[in-house]
Each structure stands twice: as C-alpha cells, then as structure tokens.
Amino acid sequence: MRTVFGKSETIGYAKVYEKAEMAKKIEREHILVRNKLKEKKSAKKKEEAKKSE
C-alpha cells in the first residue's frame, strides 16, 4: 500500500488467479509460503542431509 501525505487516497497492488495451480506455476516460492500454498522447507531436512554426508 502506498499513501501520499495530504491525500485521502491509497494505492494498492494485487495479483488474482482463477486457480491455485496457476499461482503455483507463476509465483516464487517465498510468496507461495507466505500465502500458505506451499510449506516452508524445514531446517530438519537440512540437518539430516548434513548428517548423512
């Protein structure tokens, strides 16, 4: 959201997809995690990979 001092107006930006699958194809991973369309990679998986080496 963006506002300007002295104006009674706010400008916003939004992306709207018809289906979640379209968002998954287009958006970056961190955006999908923030919108709960994908789970964040856990630190446990990274630790397990280090232990197996």
* Strand composition percent: 5-15%
The strand line-up of the biggest sheet is 1-2
* Low-confidence blocks of residues: none
Determine the structural class based on helices, strands and strand pairing. mainly alpha
- Overall shape: it is elongated
| Cα-based radius of gyration, to the nearest Å | 18 Å
Count of helices? 3
Mean pLDDT: 85
Largest sheet descriptor: 2 strands, antiparallel
Describe the structure.
With 53 residues, the chain is mostly helical. It has one domain. The protein is 43% helix and 8% strand. The protein contains 3 helices and 2 strands, in the order ββααα. Strands 1-2 form a two-stranded antiparallel ribbon. A hairpin with a 6-residue loop joins β1 and β2. The longest helix is centred in the last third of the chain and has 10 residues. The protein is elongated, with a radius of gyration of 18 Å. The model has no long low-confidence stretch (mean pLDDT 85).
Layout of helices and strands:
Elements lengths: L1 E2 L6 E2 L8 H7 L2 H6 L8 H10 L1
Antiparallel strand pairs: 1-2
Gist?
This protein has 53 residues and is mainly alpha-helical. The chain has three helices and two strands. The radius of gyration is 18 Å and the shape is elongated.
Short key terms for the protein model shown above:
53 residues; mainly alpha; two-stranded antiparallel ribbon; 3 helices; 43% helix; elongated
